[in-house]
Amino acid sequence: MWAASACCSRQAGEGGGSATAARTPVKTFQAYLPPAHRTYSCIHCRAHLASHDELISKSFQGSQGRAYLFNSVVNVGCGPAEERVLLTGLHAVADIYCECCKTMLGWKYEHAFESSQKYKEGKFIIELAHMVKENGWD
Ligand SMILES: [Zn+2]
């Protein structure tokens, strides 16, 4: 099962009413962040990944170097969570990948077992190697 990051509890077909079944497209191919914002994009396919406003910390370490911690991301899919021992202790983490080009980007902290690490729960790590700053800002 893929865990959807967005809450989508609205199920079609509930309640039996069929007269006004609006055929709205259910598949969104790509989310776009507001153009006025400084954004990080997937370096492989240029899909938007995160807004600079959502950046929490730049001082994380990924398998390929520096990684950033974000409060929220877009266009990112999530694999199953599993327990891993990281530099900062035991965590339940899930791999995250670009929904557009399927490249693994980093991971999501599903659960932290040490109280000092709880602030990372529900947050996302994206490795710098997979991101590009949009619009050339510093
Ligand atoms: Zn991509």
TrEMBL record:
Entry annotated with the keyword Metal-binding: yes
Top-level lineage group: Eukaryota
Gene Ontology molecular function: any one: metal ion binding
KW Disulfide bond (keyword) present: no
PROSITE patterns assigned: YIPPEE
InterPro entries assigned to the protein according to its UniProt record, in alphabetical order: Yippee (IPR034751), Yippee/Mis18/Cereblon (IPR004910), Yippee_fam (IPR039058)
Cited Pfam families: Yippee-Mis18
Domain Yippee: 38-135
Alphabetically ordered keywords of this record: Metal-binding, Zinc
Disordered: region residues: 1-21
Family membership: Belongs to the yippee family.
Stated name of the protein: Protein yippee-like
